[in-house]
Amino acid sequence: MVRLGENLRALRHQQGLPQYVVAERAGLTKGMLSAYETDRQAPTLNTLFALAKALEVAPAELLRETDEELSRRLRRLGTLSAAARQELIPILDEYLLRHESHLES
Known about the structure:
By secondary structure, the chain is an all-alpha fold. It has helices at residues 4-14, 19-26, 30-37, 45-55, 59-63, 67-77, 82-98, 100-104. The chain has eight helices and no strands. The radius of gyration is 18 Å and the shape is elongated.
């Protein structure tokens, strides 16, 4: 599950920005930004783009899954049968090959 608020807050903290600065850049009130960061309210698509621009990130960064969620999924893969895991290997290899340049960065 994607946690927009968690991602939004983490990116803001990584950049050392207070809520009022990001809110101002995105054309929001500090209260609205707080509501998005705590997942009390979901932003519109336009607001999502404004928030991404305010944080100077791609909108996809706000929607990415957390490492914790990725780890949970990887643990679930370990519970699959050996045959099922073997079916996944070519799929994962193909994906990694297509995105190899991103992995090296």
